[in-house]
Amino acid sequence: MAQTQFGSHCVGGGLIPNESNYDRTGWDYIVEWPQNINVATLDTRPTPIACHVQTKGAWVGNVSIRLRLSSAERLAKEPKPTFIYIFAVDTLDDTPRFDHAHVIHVQGDFLALILKKLRETEASAQRANDVYFDVTVPKWGTRVELGGRAFRKFVEDAVGGSMADYITRKQVELQTLGYGPGRFRLTTTFFATSEDIVEAFLGLKRIEGEVDEHIEERFGISLPMPSLDIGKGTIDFQPNPSGKCEIRFRKDSNHPASSFKGDLYRVPEALVDPQTARIAVKTDLLTITLTLRKEGATEGGQDFRILPHQDVIKEERFKTAKWKSFYDFSASSREGPILIEIINPKSGASMVHGIITPGDDARAEGRRLRRTCFLLQKLERILHVAGRPNMKFRIRELLDKASDIEIAATLIENPAALSSLGFKTELAQGLTAGLSVPMLYFRSFELGGHEMAYCAKLNVETMSINSEVTWRGSEMKLVTLERIGKASGQKEVPSPELKLFLERTQRQTGVSSYFLADPYAPSDRGS
């Protein structure tokens, strides 16, 4: 009776009820909304609402209905909106009549209830078709007036206007309800030493292992997942940092401190000796590992280990400031003992402090690294003048252009240190000894896929006039230094960008005479 009555109510509300003639899948009706002919063109109007409905009847005073779990599962996992429509049945003169209705929307907490029941049934090795459960109607349902119009409004409010958006929201619920942060748990056998396992938990090493058991927890119920049939394999840990930190270092208390920032990683205490703590500080370019022995241990103190990320150093591009911090620390740690602190950036308190003492064979490497650090300081000055402090480079790209960088930096900071420009020309009418002419000196060089160019102004004077004229330049003064474009890769002729740079600078200075150094010839301070 309830099922038949629901269909007639839908018709009265302008809906299209499609009744199930073979009820084995949990729904009695698929209810469809008519097309909205006033919204858009035929090809773009939205999908009309459609929903699955199971109908029930309950005597007034009865507060619960019984559902078969297999039917509830169908309603729960149907992508479209699903509802349970419960008629409240009363009697008048011994004749049953419908008094009002409740509608249960299968979403949110009620959807979670069904999924949890399914999880419990799986854990107890039962069949969903054999399991029934009671649902308290006033708790889960919303009371509505009888009739198709009230039901129509309820569904339209629940869907929110877009079937596509509703289906997306329901799929998210189906995939996330009941899961906490520890969704999966693996039982694994490691084929490694305890030290290897500690380093693996710091993300520093891969180790051999075999998955013995794979557990998934949902709604607090753990179930084994299908076996990960991978046999023995390599396990790569990707730990999450426990926080940020700042690394400060200096030669001694009389020297100013340098610093850089990193992520702090800790090893679970269960994996190390109770008298020992293991932590690591990671940056893009290096990792510092620390073994901290607590008071009372046989050997107290700290052990520091510095691990450069060689593949990253070789392949990745970074800003000059990051390269400079890395090479400053790397050089300092090899030139002699340094004081090092790991600082909590929020409180400013020192979490760890100690001394790093290099080996006797590290000083030569320290000198080489310090030369690179000096080169980076010069490059930082060049990029500041060019207004391009955030350019990124591979370190090899910088080392390959060390001479060009040094000349440009010297022109900025101490042009008197550069050799004078000298050249010879053919005899020309009107040239006399001691003649002074203003001139522009241009040079460009490739740097990490970019073309850098600079111009200096000087006066050139005729020093001697014989069969040819010898010219000697005065001290150069920088006019401009710019990143003028991407490197062209054409080594035979100046790039179009360099030509435009030259012409623009001539107009700005009012000097037409110029000397253009071969941009691809080896750098020479005396050129």
Descriptive overview:
This protein has 527 residues and is an alpha+beta fold. The protein has helices at residues 2-12, 69-77, 108-123, 137-140, 148-159, 163-176, 194-201, 310-315, 320-335, 363-386, 395-399, 402-413, 496-509; strands at residues 16-19, 29-32, 50-59, 64-68, 82-92, 95-105, 132-136, 142-144, 184-191, 207-218, 221-224, 232-235, 243-250, 258-266, 276-282, 286-293, 301-308, 318-319, 338-343, 350-356, 392-393, 422-426, 436-447, 450-465, 468-473, 477-486, 514-516.
Short structural description:
The chain is of the alpha+beta class.
Sheet having the most strands: 7 strands, antiparallel
Overall radius of gyration: 39 Å
Number of strands: 27
The end-to-end span amounts to 103 Å
Q: How much of the residues is beta strand, in percent?
A: 35-45%
Search tags:
527 residues, alpha+beta, seven-stranded antiparallel beta sheet, six-stranded mixed beta sheet, 13 helices, elongated
Please outline the helices and strands.
Elements: H1 2-12, E1 16-19, E2 29-32, E3 50-59, E4 64-68, H2 69-77, E5 82-92, E6 95-105, H3 108-123, E7 132-136, H4 137-140, E8 142-144, H5 148-159, H6 163-176, E9 184-191, H7 194-201, E10 207-218, E11 221-224, E12 232-235, E13 243-250, E14 258-266, E15 276-282, E16 286-293, E17 301-308, H8 310-315, E18 318-319, H9 320-335, E19 338-343, E20 350-356, H10 363-386, E21 392-393, H11 395-399, H12 402-413, E22 422-426, E23 436-447, E24 450-465, E25 468-473, E26 477-486, H13 496-509, E27 514-516
Parallel strand pairs: 3-5, 23-27
Antiparallel strand pairs: 1-2, 2-3, 4-7, 5-6, 6-8, 9-10, 10-11, 10-12, 13-14, 13-19, 14-15, 15-16, 16-17, 18-21, 19-20, 22-25, 23-24, 24-25, 24-26
